[in-house]
């Protein structure tokens, strides 16, 4: 591709200088280079499609070397397409992106724990986005794809992380908190005895659980800024779950007896701000 672009620049120079004697030669070189480029590009494509996933897999959630090669290779070709807008090259890059997507998912599935699969996908997407950003706005289409992938996997990770530490709270909020205790429509109305153990459990260990979440995040993600955003998202989601639990408790007959065990929203907000600063 470098040679193709150099030939094009030579053709422009010759045209400006009105020297036509090399036109035929430069055309022939250009015509011979494109099939060669296509052949080499297809070799890259096939190496991804036919890769032995078990040979490539490493028990490490940090960015895989194949993904780094892909990101740098793609960023280089995007740079070489600036001011040219070569549709054929863009099509080839899209084919390559689909092949690397498929390989990335296969590699992720080799991790036994779903949470590790998600961490692996996040780290690889984040690294790919960082490399593509260096190529400038021309790589926005491919970059947007990985940003969407990063966003969806971040949401999955946040839920997995919270379920590890606050499963009872989350299950209650998702299943029971939306019910109206005064309507009588529920077969089994929410009672104080049902909510009390959840509130007391949260009150006794929420700070320790947040510390564990913090430690999990800083050891899982290679990009600290990405990790900080994920931790903030997890703590914000936790705050939303706890707010819904508190609101539900206020609607229960006799729920006011648990007020002394409630953690104030301002206390949780303080912890969110504290970890946002120190991470």
List the helices and strands and how they pair.
Layout: H1 2-17, H2 23-49, H3 53-56, H4 65-80, H5 87-109, H6 114-134, H7 140-175, H8 192-220, H9 224-251, H10 265-278
Helix pairs in contact: 1-2, 2-5, 4-5, 4-6, 5-6, 6-7, 7-8, 7-9, 8-9, 9-10
Description:
With 279 residues, the chain is mainly α. Helix 4 packs parallel to helix 6 and helix 7 runs parallel beside helix 9. It is elongated, with a radius of gyration of 27 Å. It starts with a helix and ends with a helix. The model has no long low-confidence stretch (mean pLDDT 89).
Structural class: mainly alpha
Share of helical residues: over 70%
Question: Which residues form runs of ≥5 with pLDDT under 50?
Answer: none
Beta-strand portion reads under 5%
pLDDT averaged residue by residue? 89
Radius of gyration: 27 Å
Q: Which series of helices and strands comes N to C?
A: HHHHHHHHHH
Short description:
With 279 residues, the chain is mostly helical.
Looking at this protein, list some descriptive labels.
single chain; 279 residues; mainly alpha; 10 helices; elongated
